[in-house]
Structure formats: structure tokens, C-alpha cells
Write a structure and sequence with these properties.
This protein is mainly α. 66% of the residues lie in helices and 0% in strands. The protein has one domain (5-57).
């Protein structure tokens, strides 16, 4: 399945708007293996880091 930028933007917005904050923190800690700190982990920083990893893994230059 291929997503366009509008679909990705809408999916991210929906996820952020409807998320359960406490569940998100618990899941973050389980997935990444370290404690969540809102000072360091803002939505923008996390999205940029995930995008960087995806670009790197798929050799994309966007």
C-alpha cells in the first residue's frame, strides 16, 4: 500500500488529536526502552526522527 503526503499528514494529526496520553507514555517506554520525558520528546522531534530513520533505511533523499 502506498500513501501520499496528505494521507500521512491526516493520519498523524488524527493520532495526535485522539491519543490517550498515559497509554502513549507507557507504549513509548516499552517500544524504545527508556523513560519518556516531555522536555526532550515533543511530537515534532519524534516525527522528525522517525522520518530520518525511514529515509535512511530506504535510502530516500526527500
Amino acid at each position: 500500500m502506498v500513501f501520499n503526503s496528505v494521507q500521512i499528514r491526516n493520519a498523524i494529526k488524527y493520532a495526535i488529536d485522539t491519543r490517550n496520553e498515559q497509554k502513549a507514555i507507557i507504549n513509548f517506554e516499552e517500544i524504545f526502552g527508556y523513560e519518556y520525558d516531555p522536555y526532550y520528546f515533543t511530537n515534532k522531534i519524534i516525527i522528525e526522527e522517525v522520518a530520518r530513520i525511514v529515509k535512511y533505511k530506504h535510502n530516500l533523499s526527500i
